[in-house]
Amino acid sequence: MPVVSLQNVSKTFENHVVIDKLSLDVFKGEFLTLLGPSGCGKTTVLRIIAGLETCDQGGIHIDGKDHTHVPACDRDVNTVFQSYALFPHMTVFDNIAFGLKLKKTKPGEIKQRVEETLALVKLSGLGHRRIQQLSGGQQQRVAIARAIVNQPLILLLDEPLSALDYKLRKEMRLELRQLHRKLGITFVFVTHDQEEALTLSDRVVVMNNGAIEQIGPPKEIYEEPLNRFVAEFVGESNLFDAEVIKTWGETMDIRVQGVLKTVKNRRGFQAGQRVKVLLRPEDMTVESGKQACLPGSFPGRVEEMIYKGTTVELIIRLEDGKQVVVLEFFNEDAEDISYDMGEGVCVSWIDGWEVVLPHE
Ligand SMILES: Nc1ncnc2c1ncn2[C@@H]1O[C@H](COP(=O)(O)OP(=O)(O)O)[C@@H](O)[C@H]1O
Ligand SMILES: [Mg+2]
After folding, report:
1. Would you say the CB of residue 44 lies under 6 angstroms from ligand 1?
2. What is the pLDDT of residues 217-276, one digit of tens each?
3. I want to staple 55 with a disulfide (CB 3.0 to 4.6 A). Which of 9, 84, 280, 347 is the partner?
4. Which residues belong to CATH 3.40.50.300 in the chain?
């Protein structure tokens, strides 16, 4: 049974449809991430779950019960806001204890729960500090502590890491995962950062214009995007225009960049149809172009070589002007990956790693 279930939820602001008949089930204990560009409606979905926003149409169930008209304060849901929304003049302890005091929890129990929560977010011993005396990362932890201290059924997190610098953000990602595991609470996380979504989540919901484009585990979203929007939003991709020439069973011949290639046909494409072929940079290969390119590979020239530590990113201009990004990994026995600028190369991809999408 889902712990949160949105059924056909719509929301309009000032004649502008922000959420469009969206249905979504969140399962107990999972780490679910809403991923999408700014303005696509992620925060609005969170606010509808929290009860901070009503839906114009559709309904919401929490823990199996209709919550469509249940006010925020009566929902077993807490939110960590992007802005943290802490009380700056209060101590860390009082910030975390605030909700428990409102609920008239006994002082002894408050103390114990706050201390336990401080330990969980690695802030033990800092209870007496004022919020202004904390770093950004520490404030972030207080915001999380305040939201988990009364062990809600569901924790909503709205871009909680966006104010932190890159290194801290990566550390906090790891800690959020560990916290999720320890607490066993359902997390609904919002981000516009695809790397964050892929590394944190059990399932990712890719949103666009108030609707869901795809839901699935990170690997599926990355390797089997359902459409061009998902392919381009999640990870880097090379997209080739192609035409289906002939199909048989789950295989087909396509013409791409003037070259004939045999690829999988998982979606029943027909001869004559136009398609897009998606290839991640790491699925593409480059060979020296000193000899003529083998059948099935495309001639081009190296335009840029970007060193990235364990990989090298090559920007290659194909003969028809199309630009392709290829990621090459260093491996122990191979000599250095090295090309001259403007050097002729042959570009191809690892057979079977392509994803063929409708042209749209
Ligand atoms: N209270 C509001 N009044 C009017 N428009 C709003 C309000 N809240 C959000 N919007 C609009 O709804 C759209 C979605 O917003 P939001 O859910 O915040 O997107 P996201 O979190 O994905 O960036 C945006 O176009 C935003 O301007
Ligand atoms: Mg938002």
Report:
1. yes
2. 999 999 999 999 999 999 999 999 999 999 999 999 999 998 999 999 989 999 999 999
3. 9
4. 2-233
Q: Which residue has the tokens 């570009």?
A: 347
pLDDT tens by residue, 107-148: 999 999 999 999 999 999 999 999 989 988 899 999 999 999
Question: What does the DSSP assignment read for 4-24?
Answer: EEEEEEEEEETTEEEEEEEEE
Q: Which ligand number lies closest to the CA of residue 47?
A: 1
For ligand 1, whether the C-beta of 210 sits within 6 Å is: no
Residues 6+ away with beta carbon under 8 Å from 357: 225, 226, 227, 228, 231, 275, 276, 277, 278
State whether the beta carbon of 42 lies less than 6 angstroms from ligand 1: yes
Give the homologous superfamily in CATH for domain 238-358. Nucleic acid-binding proteins (2.40.50.140)
**For the domain with range 2-233, which CATH number is right: 3.40.640.10, 3.40.190.80, 3.40.50.300, 1.10.1610.10?**
3.40.50.300
Roughly what angle, to the nearest 10 degrees, separates helices 107-120 and 136-148?
Answer: 130
Contacts (Cβ under 8 Å, ≥6 apart) of 342: 301, 302, 303
Looking at the chain, the domain(s) classified CATH 2.40.50.140 span: 238-358
Complete edge-to-edge strand list for the sheet that includes strand 57-62? 16-27, 2-13, 57-62, 65-66
Global pTM?
0.91
Dist CA 302 CA 325 (whole Å): 10
Residue nearest to atom 2 of ligand 1 (CA): 13
Q: Is the beta carbon of 192 within 6 A of some atom in ligand 1?
A: no
Do 213 and 207 form a contact (C-beta atoms < 8 A)? yes
Cβ 48 under 6 angstroms from ligand 1: no
Beta strands in the chain (DSSP E): 2-13, 16-27, 31-35, 57-62, 65-66, 77-80, 154-158, 186-191, 203-208, 211-216, 238-248, 251-256, 259-264, 274-279, 284-288, 298-307, 311-318, 323-329, 344-349, 355-358
